[in-house]
């Protein structure tokens, strides 16, 4: 199953910490097996850097099957690289041509400070969730799971919104570094379910405020986020968030 | 109370919608030119005679304009701050990249510049509208102005930007207030673009008419 | 080797009433006292997230630690299939007893009966809780929850959210936890790795943690510690586990006195995407539902080089259908896995590495049409296509087994308390519920059962029974543990050898996989037990950890974890060698029936082996917990 091998030039963003201005450094990646994933290619480059006495390129990753949301970088100007609907770990080297130069830099946003090299701090996403992205039901409080029927259509839509992996590609690709797709996905997920209704107004207002507070930009309906999202989350969710927000504000 | 960015955006949309109303009303007035000098001049007189009401409308219009621009400026500064540092390389991600969406602040500035020019040119102008030795009032002013090709060109270019601005903003309003569902998004985009282009063409028809007939 | 008998603390009485009665007789802690008690939770997967949220809601002060930047990144997120619950919504005769029975039998009669019964009982509450949180489970058109049959169960009791059930359940627990972070009841230390457990007066009273961003070592005191840190599958280097999954926290607790139970019970999943090169970092699992329509085969001729579509029917060996005519391609996970190994051992493996077998959908596509197959398996086919770069509609898939779950873990009693008082272990990190083999859709169930419904009760009993004095981080035990941690880190940094951390991990993993993977025998295990200390010694002399210990250093993080795997692997092999029987995920070549089935030895091994640490390189001491079965009858399974 092993593929052909290609040679690549990498221009990788290296930054020692949040305060370091950072710079690009060039690496040669030779004999890259095209069956390897992008992160495995970086593993091999890193192994060589260490052998040569350097410090490896820091990048975040964990499950390497596209679900944990840890990985992500801009590859040639695109979040998670050139292929649609995959995370960086599911991008394979067969997408690249021999002799190509790859510019690899971190997701950039004021709310995502660079921790080191390609690794960013996305704690701001957690803060948005903790500001209201939940149903307040203490353990043991629940009624029987089938006591409230939910239409399949709404359940499926809620699921589609809930598949967000929190990778931040939406923010990275947005010209305004807006977290609207991320925030709206959670708001939509809850707004589509009866369980989410009781706290709906409070939730949308608090989460939108938190999004501003974290320093994300606003949405100008350019829809880059939808194109960058590895899970294909729809901008319809942003529309729903806007409606929920207006409703909450008008009805107080 | 501080406004959230989403509230600001929704206010930009509301005021924008008001301004679209003005643009359409203004266009209907302009079209009277095709009915001849009297129709247009009577309309101008009618507006002048409104007196206090006209001023109320003007103040309302100015307020909408100021809110629309002020909040937009505020949001633009906010979004520049939100990005922090720029990418060395950035490609489009949108499935249907929209030129009009990308240049919204720029088209807005062009429109603002034109509005100032337009007010100085027509509304507060000390010029007279003499055609063939006869003062034909506002009608004459419009016609003489557009007989200058440079003048007409400026006007048409400005209207093109207005069209671009509107073609994004009209569909954007639906998204901003949560009025679209995804399966209707494409229809709304098409209609919005059609309206934008339509308004630009309609406005531009006046200088074209003048250039062809005088 | 001395045999000491462990007390499981299962209350007496009929197994089906034990939990109910125990709940009403346990000691309670009143709300105003809960406020004064601090609990440390390590790990934020299903077990940790649900425990942290539940304890915080009850009023305990909770300190949560995760080496991830966000609680939502824990590896529970990757579970695909579903979660079992004895709801009997399908009216197909399911019950708590049936789920209990299936789990005990599926575990090859090596789990603790009372724990499994409790698990089956609370399974129904889990679904209620998750739905109330807004977990978007699949539904029928009538708006009620949808169920499917999973892993060969005869009833439909599996609740699911497409192929992302783990993600949705984890996000539910995560949101419940973040709610408590917001209210201030939980103090969340992200990017903090637990480096050691601190015991004061023989009780677990805190941990030492390292801030992965700054390298700062910090001390944290509490009244109890919960380890919810998952399994040790990455000892094999290649597994379906996430890259960072490790044994460190449980191993370090083991070194402090917590017994490690049944490490040899590891589960191999038969339908994973095979290894394609030595740069490979992890393996990807595909749902075993693929075996419903796919046919497994290898070429009859070893060393076959033709394209699979050019190999005529009579030169293919559909070995599962041939050997197990009744079950065919649907034999249990362990049989399917082991048989793949036998084929590749004979040189009949396919693909560039020779470590794969075909899973062919040609006949199913001819019979049902491509559209029907796409509707059933579309997302799996896409996933395979993306990773393997081959179109499974045109060419047979290549699959190979991989490690994906470990049933062994720290020994816990019925209260989920380890042999160290105050140290509780939840989820995959403990050994308790799955015996020698875990059934599909049961891992999520156990993690959430432990966190939502068991520990909130039993920890109260611990606090109510123990007289815990106040302990602060000024206690000398904390300073000593901190010094030890710092010492180890300095040692790792100062070796400055020639080999990268990953090279040691790969070397260890390949050897453990080879000799202690799908099939084990005395000869191999003996060799392995000789090899592991050699790799370990070389590691401590020749590993190269670049960079500095202050600040973010991923190589240092890995080095610490690999160092622990190098010690743990020895215990794994020791246990595998010691257990002279085959059961569930532990298959000893010496102990099989004539048909090649696992042959248990109920006379000598109907028990739990819990190992006590006696120093690195020293022989561990085995303790025994006898297993008794009152509700089920021990039987030998057969799939012929």
Can you put this structure into words, describing what you see?
The complex is a heterotrimer of chains A (252), B (214) and C (640). Chain A is an alpha+beta fold and 252 residues long. Chain A is built from eight helices and seven strands; from the N terminus they run ββαβββββααααααα. Chain A has a five-stranded mixed beta sheet with strand order 2-1-5-3-4. Chain A has a two-stranded antiparallel sheet with strand order 6-7. In chain A, a hairpin with an 8-residue loop joins strand 1 and strand 2. In chain A, helix 6 packs across helix 8. Chain A is elongated and about 60 Å long. The model of chain A has no long low-confidence stretch (mean pLDDT 96). By secondary structure, chain B is an all-alpha fold. Chain B has one domain (5-81, 101-213): 3 helical TM bundles of succinate and fumarate reductases (Up-down Bundle), CATH 1.20.1300. Chain B has eight helices and two strands. Chain B has helices at 5-30, 37-49, 52-83, 99-102, 104-123, 137-147, 149-176, 182-213, and strands at 130-131, 134-135. In chain B, strands 1-2 form a two-stranded antiparallel ribbon. In chain B, a hairpin with a 2-residue loop joins strand 1 (130-131) and strand 2. In chain B, helix 1 packs across helix 3 (52-83), helix 1 (5-30) packs across helix 7 and helix 2 (37-49) packs across helix 6 (137-147). The radius of gyration of chain B is 20 Å and the shape is elongated. Chain B starts with a helix and ends with a helix. In chain B, 29% of the residues are buried. The mean pLDDT of chain B is 91. Chain C is of the alpha/beta class and 640 residues long. Among the domains of chain C are: 269-402, Flavocytochrome C3, Chain A, domain 1 (Alpha-Beta Complex), CATH 3.90.700; 476-626, Fumarate reductase/succinate dehydrogenase flavoprotein-like, C-terminal domain (Methane Monooxygenase Hydroxylase, Chain G, domain 1, Up-down Bundle). Chain C has 17 helices and 24 strands. In chain C, a hairpin with an 8-residue loop joins strand 23 (607-612) and strand 24. In chain C, helix 5 (113-133) crosses helix 12 (443-465), helix 14 runs antiparallel to helix 15 (522-542) and helix 14 (501-516) runs parallel beside helix 16 (554-578). The longest helix of chain C has 25 residues, at 554-578. The model of chain C has no long low-confidence stretch (mean pLDDT 95). Chains in contact: A-B, A-C. Chains A and C meet through helix 1, helix 2 and helix 3 of A and helix 3, helix 5, helix 6, strand 14 and helix 11 of C.
